[in-house]
Amino acid sequence: MKITIIGTGYVGLVTGACLAEIGNDVLCLDVDARKIAILEAGGVPIHEPGLEGVIARNRHAGRIRFTTDIEAAVAHGDIQFIAVGTPPDEDGSADLQYVLAAARNIGRTMSDFKVVVDKSTVPVGTAARVRDAIAAELRARGADVPFSVVSNPEFLKEGAAVEDFMRPDRIVLGCDDDANGRRALALMKQLYSPFNRNHERTMLMDVRSAEFTKYAANAMLATRISFMNELANLAERVGADIEAVRRGIGSDPRIGYSFLYAGCGYGGSCFPKDVQALVRTGDEHGHRLQILRAVEAVNDAQKQVLAQKITAHFGERLDDLSFAVWGLAFKPETDDMREAPSRVLVRALLQRGARVRAFDPVAVDEARRVFALDLTQEESARLDFCDSREAAADGADALVVLTEWKAFKSLDAADLKERLRRPVIFDGRNLYDPAVLAREGFDYFTIGRTHVDA
Ligand SMILES: NC(=O)c1ccc[n+]([C@@H]2O[C@H](COP(=O)([O-])OP(=O)(O)OC[C@H]3O[C@@H](n4cnc5c(N)ncnc54)[C@H](O)[C@@H]3O)[C@@H](O)[C@H]2O)c1
Ligand SMILES: O=c1ccn([C@@H]2O[C@H](COP(=O)(O)OP(=O)(O)O[C@H]3O[C@H](CO)[C@@H](O)[C@H](O)[C@H]3O)[C@@H](O)[C@H]2O)c(=O)[nH]1
């Protein structure tokens, strides 16, 4: 099938690559000429495991191409996926300007039946606004071309995006129950049929429920994390170990093990903005979402917890102290720094006068870019990026772990002790065994594990 992807970010690029992989003819559009130039030259502008190989294979087979030419992109696909960003507006609601711009672009030049798919995460009612935007453009040029807007929210996780797309838990399709909607649904079912060979993963519903499902999923997952973070902070105070508690409750199939890891707060481009957006949707409809307000507040506070532990240990001012930071990306296997807890922690350390020696396996370039925006020049001068975790640790007064990269999971405690000026670790991801580190003479601070004094 002929597919156009509008927006070649994390979602659009993965969607385009994976749909090409199963044999479709995909054209990816972006307004960012830099991204398209990288892709046309055979590069990939983001770090996502497996993605480069899928794109390379399909480029060579001629199944995926990239363009900045809006008219060509609209002409190409029978199915037009809108996968542009929906960042938070000033009041936290989803900013739909990119989605609506994409819709207008479709309406401006389309000349035959189009299925327009909302892949972006958008508030309930957006499909109707997309439909109106396209219809207004068609009216303006006196054209009568049939189309239908489908909601098909995406549930992939960064760092596992290709795998998640290729093996989805479910494919949610929200379609209108009219002639064009049924025509659109038939095409969408055909497109996704390769994913349904072993069992049917497609869930059909009305458009508004499909839009809502995406926010409900992210809100539920974020709630689990804030719930565990709040309990972790209590576990420390009552002398319990949140890791034991996690295993204890996760074993109940009604609860399950996933997304129960306490840590230094959730980040990324989705949970923070989607929780906020749902809270705003509630406000707009006179329905105050109390649980999600608390989820957001707990998460904001959780991003400060490590800094509080550090100042409780070293004092409010950190002048003359140097901190090794392992992990900058908001989660492993990505270079994405959006809402990363590292942005809060590194800034807090620098504002208190410390030096920071940071290492991340893939996010350093992106970190340089975002910290240049977050920090003053004077603060930036005290932030160094290192080439390895060992180099970051050399001569630092303490180690802070912020991202659970696999490469950080095994630790040569004796070697680390040699490198650090003081044997102190603040672990935002509970990676290590407190008893082992205590034996090695470390002060080891965790999120919700009982603190074992050396
Ligand atoms: N990142 C994720 O893990 C993830 C997962 C599921 C859903 N989502 C949702 O998917 C959407 C996209 O997220 P993302 O992380 O891929 O965003 P992104 O910022 O990585 O990419 C968006 C791309 O759209 C391009 N763009 C903007 N306006 C355009 C236009 N009019 N025409 C063509 N291109 C345009 C931008 O230049 C950018 O390259 C968001 O709504 C997000 O909430 C994201
Ligand atoms: O038990 C856990 C699990 C995750 N996190 C944190 O939560 C954040 C988000 O992690 P994750 O959900 O793995 O990454 P995302 O790529 O943001 O994916 C989420 O957001 C996407 C965009 O909407 C959805 O498509 C995915 O289903 C949803 O998991 C990260 O900071 C993690 O460190 C925890 O603190 N504890």
Automatic annotation (TrEMBL):
Residues 324-434 form the UDP-glucose/GDP-mannose dehydrogenase C-terminal domain. InterPro entries: 6-PGluconate_DH-like_C_sf (IPR008927), NAD(P)-bd_dom_sf (IPR036291), UDP-Glc/GDP-Man (IPR017476), UDP-Glc/GDP-Man_DH_C (IPR014027), UDP-Glc/GDP-Man_DH_C_sf (IPR036220), UDP-Glc/GDP-Man_DH_dimer (IPR014026), UDP-Glc/GDP-Man_DH_N (IPR001732), UDPglc_DH_bac (IPR028357). Transmembrane segments: none annotated. Gene3D superfamilies: Cytochrome c1, transmembrane anchor, C-terminal, NAD(P)-binding Rossmann-like Domain. GO terms for biological process: polysaccharide biosynthetic process; UDP-glucuronate biosynthetic process. Pfam families: UDPG_MGDP_dh (PF00984), UDPG_MGDP_dh_C (PF03720), UDPG_MGDP_dh_N (PF03721). Pathway: Nucleotide-sugar biosynthesis; UDP-alpha-D-glucuronate biosynthesis; UDP-alpha-D-glucuronate from UDP-alpha-D-glucose: step 1/1. The keyword NAD applies. NCBIfam families: NDP-sugDHase. Belongs to the UDP-glucose/GDP-mannose dehydrogenase family. This is UDP-glucose 6-dehydrogenase. It comes from Chitinasiproducens palmae.
